[in-house]
Design a protein that fits this description.
Layout: H1 11-26, H2 32-44, H3 47-61
Helix pairs in contact: 1-2, 1-3, 2-3
Protein name: ALF repeat-containing protein
InterPro entries: DUF312_ALF
């Protein structure tokens, strides 16, 4: 992820994260819990919710 000078995510970063979440959803073998978490991250529509899912949430859900 490329951060802007103030440390926040850029629009390109958000797009990459959104694509990564859609890739998770495209996997037919993911758990129901992970599918729900990914859908919620997309529904929240914030860069922070997408980043959290990718960095932590997907591991916490199936732990």
């Amino acid at each position: 992820m490329t951060a802007s000078t103030d440390g926040s995510a850029t629009p390109a970063d958000e797009t990459e994260d959104r694509v990564a979440v859609f890739r998770i959803l495209a996997d037919p073998t993911i758990s129901d819990a992970l599918r729900t978490a990914a859908e919620q991250a997309l529904d929240n529509a914030t860069p922070e919710s997408l980043r959290y899912l990718l960095e932590h949430g997907r591991y916490e859900v199936d732990a």
